[in-house]
Amino acid sequence: MGCSPSILSSLSNNHNNRKDSGLYCSNNSDTNSNKIDAHNETNTALANQILVQSSNKDVLEKDCVKKDSIVSVSGFGHITHNFTIIPSSIRRATIGTSAPSNSRLGHRKSSLALTPEEDCPVEPTIKLHDGKYPYLIPPNPSVRALIVFYKDDQVSDAVLRSCERLNIEITRAKSTDSALELFQSPLNGGHHLVIVDGRCKNTDVESFGRSLRSSKGSQYTIMVCVVKKSVFEKDDTSILSLLDVGYNRCIIESPHVSILSSELRQIQHSLIRPQNVIATQQALYAALHRVKDTVIITDDALRIQYMNKQAERILGMKIDEVVGRPLHDFINSDASVLLSQTNRLREFDGTLSFTRKVQDPILLHVRAYPVACLGKSTTHLILSLQASGSHEMGLPSIPQAKEPRGSLHSIRRGSFDIRSIASDGLRRTSLAKLSSLPLEAPITKVLSLLTQVQENCSSDEARLLDRVMDFLKREGLYSPQIKEIRPEDPVATDLIGALLTQGPTNVVSSRRSSNESIIRSGSRQSSTSASVPKIKMPTHVSELLECALDWDFEIFRLEELTEKHPLVYLGTELFRRFDVYNTFNCDETTFRSWLIVIESHYHIVNTYHNSTHAADVMQATACYLQQLANRDLKIMDRLDEATALIASAAHDVDHPGRSSAYLCNSDNQLAILYNDVCVLESHHAATTFRLTLSDEKINIFKNLDRDMYKLARSIIIDMILATEMTRHFEHLAKFVSVFGNDAENKDIVIKKYPLKLPNDEDNQMLIRRMLIKCSDVSNPTRPLKFCVEWARRIAEEYFIQTDDEKRKGMPIVMPMFDRATCSISKSQIGFIEFIIQDMMNAWDGFIDMPELVQYMQYNYTQWKLFEEQGINTLNDIKRKQMSITNANLSSMKLDEMM
Ligand SMILES: Nc1ncnc2c1ncn2[C@@H]1O[C@@H]2COP(=O)(O)O[C@H]2[C@H]1O
Question: In which residue ranges is the amino acid composition biased (Low complexity) (predicted)?
């Protein structure tokens, strides 16, 4: 005889599930139901991820009681059920609390609530967390059944008693008409289960089934038909017909409660619960369709499965036009990084250009979250997109200074306050003027497109676009986006504010044509005739310099041994080790003379910004270069190495021991010369070239041909300017957006670099900038005794500036850096937290020097300890230094320190 009843019914069940599991939310999902073959479990798990990972999650959580967060979803019956987005915290808190098991009529619980309910017959213990993302608990409401039996007999009695046994809430109907009415009742309809007596010849069970299935909201209802045993025994097609009209299951009549109970239990587990899950997933898609984020979901083969309304708007396409098509069809930039990251279940964060239907391509900031719903490899990719340039949401906000501190020095207030710059009319006129010029910058094009969009959108959307355009009109789209500074931490606020406050400035780009990566010999002969005093390298100095490439190099010992001329000695050694003389086709004497002149232009009286700092930065640079070379990444060519060493040696030359802000406040000539913008770094770069070119004897560039000189010059200038702290977050953000920000990326970098980066001059520039930045502020990542000494030196220099400002009645750039009151420990904690930590993590992720992070973490805990112990002033620090020296902590091995 044909198939067994359960096989037949499960076939039918699959069929119906497929029909009902469209990814669209609508009150009649049937229209769209065949478009997407959604795998129910997969989608449910996927939906969990969406709820959790939506970048609007916070908003959703905050707004959970607002009307906006209630999304109507057609659920069981044609009553529209409210799906309330419950904050995960609340959701978790409700787990395990008991809900009344049989909440009967009147107080009907939402069948789609995301909280589990206690009357689950055999609720398996559900793990809420897989370590990374919480799971969604499938809803398990008490089941409500509509029992349609035309007369009472042993079978109907057994059905009713079985329902009772299983705590199934029953509504009875004695005719198909009244059954339909009950099912469609707004108050009590929309049952999970309908059991129909199919034994009576006179009733048309098929047409009842059809009518019920066409009732709104019946797509999740399980329909069961009780038939005579003989129907199965005869090879008759009536069972198939019943299944085809929408019954999920046909069961054989039985007067035995035990048989029927077990049938019903199976139905509950295998049919009703999955339907609940599908309904919940549907609700999530409904919510997703309305969120303001732009969301696209693909399957593992990167075929688009879903995009929400916002994505439709941005790409100018309807969901029907994209579903099933490869994501590549819509991306017209290199998506290999996205692929490689997400294939490895790592998130991708970057910018890609997307094709649109009619308009020009659009640059979108993409966050891609790979999700593994089944097994361990990616099954879905969730893409959250934002118009590039408006992704300040993802970046921390600028700290708000409590009070303005002097003209240029307070942190820019309310830089995110949005003002409409011009009225609509004005804006259009000026754009019209601009577009009549024979020039067009990409940003002008973007603005004019946005203005066009504004004409056809709602006033809310137009206001939002106004904000977007305001942002786009600002200079420096990557300007500092600073982590919020805790208001109770005034020392950190002061320091970070002073470091990061100043208008951004453009950095010279250093493009190199592909055939220029090898240094050609210059035409002029090297000048060996210069009368440079020979520097004798005393034995103890040369012994010390054997460790010139160790991260715990004794820089202060060198300062002492060389009577405060460490740069000449260390520089000569490092130039030699990196074969810079050959790279520049220039003799050692010229380089040594150059070092002497550069060192002599560092101010010996500065406690921090003196030539020992320059030597320290050069040494850190050399360590990084060596590490890159050791890893054979071919990131830095010989010119890169030489210019990096030169830039770091000269990066603070002629530093006056006062900050740029001080120079601006005091109308210093340098501030006048550089218009208050990037004053010190511009001066260091200019001084480097002025000194070098002023005398052939020290002109280390003299043997480079013109092109090579220009290239070297642009790299050096760019690197020196990159040490300007006001653009710290900009450089970091760009670096992280290309190379990621954690150690997990180390292997990716190794693998991708040789393939992807050598020709990519922009990326090369990011690495060079990051390299010098991480050298410039490497002091918190050095062994503790060096770290403390640098902190003491910078604090002293800050104090001297504050003393000076007070004496001259000038605005005080960092009022907290007053020698009488300042907590040096606090300043170091803030400096590490806000400036150093993220940067060093990202750099270690790229370069693979875990000691940087280990020392940094150790030093950080020590500063915390010092703070607790009340070690704050210079004298306290000096005392502490003595004990550190006695304990000789710096010579401890890292693992002993941890
Ligand atoms: N340990 C530190 N504590 C506080 N500020 C620091 C420390 N190290 C470096 N800095 C600051 O970071 C700045 C980096 O650029 P500069 O060398 O011009 O000036 C530096 C100091 O102002």
Answer: 509-531
Task: Give the helix, strand, coil percentages of the chain, each rounded to 5.
Answer: 55, 10, 40
Name all residues whose Cβ lies below 6 A of ligand 1: 495, 499, 652, 723, 725, 776-777, 779-780, 790-791, 794, 827-828, 831
Residue 823: how many other CB atoms lie within 10 Å: 23
The alpha carbon of 45 and the centre of ligand 1 are apart by a number of angstroms equal to 48
Residue identifier of the C-alpha nearest atom 12 of ligand 1: 777
What is the C-alpha separation between 461 and 469, in angstroms, rounded? 12
Instruction: Give the contacts of 72 (CB within 8 A, at least 6 positions apart).
Output: 80, 81, 82, 83, 286
List beta partners, residue 148. 173, 196
In angstroms, what is the span from residue 620 Cα to ligand 1's centroid?
15
**Taking the model in full, what pTM does it have?**
0.50
- Ligand 1 atom nearest the C-alpha of 798 is 22
Q: Are 516 and 580 in contact (CB under 8 A)?
A: no
Residues 182-209: tens digit of each pLDDT: 998 887 888 999 999 999 877 789 999 9
3-state SS assignment for residue 741: coil
pLDDT tens for each residue of 64-75: 333 333 344 444
Burial of 670 (0-12, 13-18, 19+ CB in 10 A): middle
Calculate how far, in angstroms, residue 794's C-alpha sits from the geometric centre of ligand 1: 7
Each residue's pLDDT tens digit, 785-836: 999 999 999 999 999 999 999 999 999 999 889 999 999 999 999 999 999 9
Dig out the tokens for 586 from the structure: 């220039």
pLDDT tens for residues 754-788? Answer: 434 444 777 889 999 999 999 999 999 999 999 99
Please give the DSSP secondary-structure letter assigned to residue 351.
E
Asked if residues 766 and 636 have their Cβ atoms less than 8 Å apart, the reply is no
Q: Is 652 annotated as a binding residue?
A: yes
* Residues known to be catalytic: 609
- Which regions of 577-633 does DSSP assign to beta strands (E)? none
**The total number of residues written for the chain in this structure:** 898
Q: What are the backbone angles phi and psi of residue 562, rounded to the nearest 5°?
A: -100, 10
> In sequence order, which ranges of 141-203 are alpha helices (DSSP H)?
154-165, 176-184
Check the annotation: does 102 bind a ligand: no
Ligand 1 atom nearest to CA at 681? 18
pLDDT digits (tens, 9 = 90+) for 423-476: 333 333 344 444 444 455 677 677 778 877 877 777 778 778 877 877 776 656
140-176 pLDDT, tens digit each: 778 999 999 999 999 999 999 999 999 999 999 999 9
Across the range 665-683, mean pLDDT stands at: 96
222-227 sheet: strands from edge to edge:
169-173, 144-148, 193-197, 222-227, 249-252
The total of other beta-carbon atoms located within 10 Å of residue 231's CB is 18
Q: Specify the higher pLDDT residue, 492 or 95.
A: 492
Beta-strand relationship, 144-148 and 70-74: unpaired
Residue 106 predicted with pLDDT over 80: no
Is 613 annotated among the ligand-binding residues? yes
Atom of ligand 1 nearest to the CA of 498: 22
- 562 known ligand binder: no
Burial 246-284 (b: 16+ CB within 10 A, else e): bbbbbbbbbeebeebbebbeebbebbbbbbbbbbbbbbb
| Secondary structure of residue 809 in the 3-state scheme | coil
Strands (E), 216-347: 222-227, 249-252, 294-299, 304-307
